[in-house]
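Protocol step 4 of 6.
Sequence for phosphoenolpyruvate--protein phosphotransferase (Aminobacter aganoensis) entered exactly as in the expression construct, tag removed. Do not edit the line below.
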Amino acid sequence: MIRDMAAGPRVLLKRLRELMAEPLEPQERLDRIVRDIAANMVAEVCSLYVLRADSVLELYATVGLNPNAVHLAQLRLGQGLVGTIAASARALNLSNAQEHPAFAYLPETGEEIYHSFLGVPVLRAGRTLGVLVVQNKTMRHYRDDEIEALETTAMVIAEMIASGDIARLSRPGLELDMSRPASFTGIAFNEGVGLGHVVLHEPRIVVTNLFNEDSDEELRRLEDALGSLRLSIDDMLERRDVAFEGEHREVLEAYRMFANDRGWVRRLEEAIRNGLTAEAAVEKVQSDMRARMLHMTDPYLRERMSDFDDLANRLLRQLMGRGPETIAASLPKDAIIVARSMGAAELLDYPRDRMRGLVLEDGAPTSHVVIVARAMGIPVAGQMKGAVSMSENGDPIIVDGEEGIIHLRPQPDLEAAYAEKVRFRARRQELYRELRKKPSETKDGVKVDLLMNAGLAVDLPQLAEAGAAGIGLFRTELQFMVASTFPRAEAQEKLYRDVLDIARGRPVTFRTIDIGGDKVLPYFKGSAQEEENPALGWRAIRLTLDRPGLLRTQVRALLKAAGGRELKVMLPMVTELSEIAQAREIIDREVRHLSRFAHHLPTSLKLGAMIEVPSLLWQLDELMQSVDFVSVGSNDLFQFVMAADRGNTQLADRFDPLSVPFLRVLKQIADAGARNHTPVTLCGELAGKPISAMALLGVGYRSISMSPASIGPVKAMLTELPLGELKSFLDDNLSGPAANLPMRALLQAFADDRSIPL
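Step 5 output, structure tokens:
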């Protein structure tokens, strides 16, 4: 007679479901759970150890060991067999536990008479919350179905721990690991300090229905959901116009590989046959996989973990009948968004007045989501590996965007210290507001235009608040990126007119639509071509010259919006002067068209180009003579000069833009502008930090554009800067040997010696 291996786990899960429904005190519930597990598995011992915040595993319930050891017996993380399981997140199946090198004898438990040992980690979202153990006197190896049954039971216990049901059993001062404070150190992407509560950008789907009534029905549901998931991935791969969540084809190929992996599907089916619902099976296998991958050293395999997580979450949404959920409606008033990665448009989905900060596991200082966050004045800390899996929605959190640190579930004294830091920053901001009334001049009387970057209507009130001299870069593509279809000409015209109205005569430079590369419009069939290196591909002016209808519509909207006023239009990603000539012809044609129909035209039209592509460095004089102004896009120019992808997290801090070679490049551009009497502005991220803004002024820039929040600190530096001294200082250092010259440190010392605030 063939034994039904799944009967035991199913009976056990049914009994656990009944226990969870009974109105029991936490300790009694745990005691009955371990008794039922022992009876079901014919084990003489069943024990549950729970991980505390101090990295100690405490015995919370047992049958078979000394009952007086409950809440007294404890092992450090990594100590003994139980500590080894917790540290590795891997099960141990031993026929003679006492021969294992990690065995640690606890005399208070009386476990020395037991030989066979099976222990599994209690996992939730890849985090170890405890260890569940069964033991027998006889020497034996536990079967695979017994291991599976114990792991499934551990998953149920993990939900009990996460719900806080057993927290009341903790002794005063000894909190469980779920509430343990945790700190992460990464990279400061945007300065500022935010105190608030966690909002997971891709919140884990909480599975509440754990136990199935009909395994065959659950297997059918799983098969249907997997079929739909595979079809959706195949569809995305076939549609060349869409890149899944901003990633590229290799990610989708990895998704397809996972979705068709028979080993993964078999594990899901096995969990269902053991009594779980399809949703609970996905969560269990996902948690097991994440725990294993977290301990792998191969960086490629660790990167694939996020692909697997995303795929599992998509399968959960298929099973639960949910589409993409918008959490903005339920956002707390002090939300701090925690994400593995994020697109610029996704950040704009959140109400700005409720956001206090952004935490990214990945990203780089010049990635577009960081640039948008900077424009919105949101503190950002990045490279926070593990922050997502350690966070729960609603957890208290502090983001320190100055030091690149986050504190999850902080202690009260730390929270109080940061609250004071926030108050200090508020007082400093008040000083910056006072500076608005002062002229934007150096200590020795040189005037400098401090402009701001913008891209949406939400940015415009900051023009007056920051005291900016105008808008040095208006990113028109943001309007396209946050829309579900191409913005109509009327909508574009209205936005541009509103910008000019609010500017009240201050200069505004509109950059023509800069899409392509990593700025994909899913509704534009031509913007998501499969390119090996999209940053160097079909984007910006290259794309709009090939699709002139886009540029014509935008130029016409700009001309109509600027009727009776000056209009400044800037072309992005210019590589050759012929591109400027082609764009000028399109603009002239639109001017002639509107003139023919007696439209009110701008009083003057100035055309400029962005210097982002190094090829322009060898045609600077010709460039300056063919345009009315130029603007340096230091983000792209720096990545191209250094051959360092600005989105590559491994290179995020490798090269310094204040190095001698790059400062020489920037000086070369400023000198060419002065030589040809062509205005030059720099509108990249370099302009927004006092120390790098100081360097820009020293090499000849008199107009820089930055995020609104940066204007106050830069102006505070500017008013104390003896520019003549700085110019001589930089001339001496930039003309000397470049090898190993620490320019950032030299600039810092220059400022310290003269009490210049940086």
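Step 6, annotate. Residues 439-754 form a domain with the TIM Barrel fold (CATH 3.20.20.60).
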